[in-house]
Design a protein that fits this description.
The structure is a single chain. This protein has 13 helices and 13 strands. By secondary structure, the protein is α/β, with parallel strands linked by helices. It starts with 14 loop residues before the first helix and ends in an 8-residue tail after the last helix. The protein has two domains: 240 residues, Type I PLP-dependent aspartate aminotransferase-like (Major domain) (Aspartate Aminotransferase, domain 2, 3-Layer(aba) Sandwich); 126 residues, Aspartate Aminotransferase, domain 1 (Alpha-Beta Complex), CATH 3.90.1150.10. The chain is globular. The chain has a seven-stranded mixed beta sheet with strand order 1-9-8-5-4-2-3, with helices on both faces. Bound molecules: pyridoxal-5'-phosphate. The site of pyridoxal-5'-phosphate has 14 residues, from helix 3 and helix 4.
Length: 388
Amino acid sequence: MRNEYLVFGQPAIEEPEIAEVVASLRAAWPGTGPKVAEFERRMAAYKGSPYAVAVSSCTAGLHLACVALGIGPGDEVIVPAMTFAATINCVVHAGATPVLVEVEPDTFNMDPQEVRRAVSGRTKAIIPVHFAGRPCDMESLTAVARKNGLKIIEDCAHAIETEYYGWKAGTIGDCGVLSFYATKNLVTGEGGMVLTGNAEIASRVKMLALHGMSHDAWRRFTDDGYKHYEVVEIGFKYNMMDLQAALGIHQIERVEAYWQRRLEIWTRYDAAFADLPVSRPAPFGKGVRHGLHLYTLLIDEAHSPVSRDDFIVALHGRNIGVGVHYRAIPVHPVYQERFGWRPEDFPVSKEIGERTVSLPLSARLTEEDVEDVIDAVRGVLGRPAAGG
Ligand SMILES: *Cc1c(COP(=O)(O)O)cnc(C)c1O
């Protein structure tokens, strides 16, 4: 058994970004400044997005996207039942009502059929989540949106590298929001970015992210001379710091190399677990470039020697940290109390939430780490690795 605990989701962080962070600390200005602007430029170029606004988190970005798109009290927003809480909470923070829909059992993505059925006269937007990095059926979702005059905000927390028939995730809807949280594919510690093709939305997001202050506020830290600022809207404090962007501008240079590394690990896992009594991620399918954020197994209690929760404990005992992404939204008490959602009304999401386990997939993993994960999984599920 390995000696050191393998922490789930630990990011690959290398010397250039470490040096850049130190330089930011030594510089006169660690707050929002030129490095944030540079990171926005580089991400916009990578994504082919006309505009990109860096913010303090994906959650903040989702909230701002809702507000900037005019979503508020009286509006309904369709969200998936299998996602992280932030996808739901941003709608509530905007004053609107989330309407939950079921996901597809193979992709874990929002089911367009269910979305169609959930549209009402008050529906204003859809928030598809490209789950684990697998693109949603954007053709169907875009068709529903067009037909009903709805906005689309893509939750791209897992989907920096994701493409759908050549379209880059986050540039298909009205807005796309990325996450650079510590466990995500590109890391700034905390951080997010709002992508949009609409200049007005971009400038509104930027303004709302910094107290609702007029634009020159972003430039008042430069040597252009002092300018008075004006507060033109009741905004938020959601700006990204140069200290964070210092990580991002170097991380983005390796985003494809890291993706390649995760593809190697993914392929190894797929081969190593093919004979085990578990479900592996569905094949990528047509038109899909998967972002490879999460490698998820579904433990089937009827066939596996252990339950999902015992599997997690057993891996922990072998010094392998894993994750659960996610328990279904309607199992959480606050949503049950506030919206009356019941897990049994979303059986697919409920079942995924009860069976799913995410294995370590970071580009930081060594060959040995990957071997250790494989050995541990096979050991717990009852079949040692061939030759091991
Ligand atoms: C991580 C995550 C978020 C929130 O990202 P933060 O940057 O931590 O705010 C939102 N949606 C999904 C699906 C996520 O996985």
